[in-house]
Fold this protein.
Amino acid sequence: MGTWGKDKSCQVASLLQDPLAIITSGDTGTRKAIMTELLQLGCNVVTSSCSFDELKSITDELKASLSPTNQAQVNPIKHNICKKEEVFYFSVAFITT
């Protein structure tokens, strides 16, 4: 494990290379913490929720907090697992990311 500090991951930076992470559930605090860690490691993140406005706010905040040298991307997608068309859209969005 590496050294932890502001805007740094506690994991070794080279641990993940060109990964894509999908975050589909979790309360706002847990989701944000996981996404922050993955973005700091250089992961591209796709995240979904049925509450898109809240999700968009979180992803905009995380995008703004990334250092200029970090090329990781985070993309929010509205997704309600109870609606078949939204499950399909999420699957297509994931595949094309």
Q: What stands out?
A: The first strand starts at residue 20 and ends at 23.
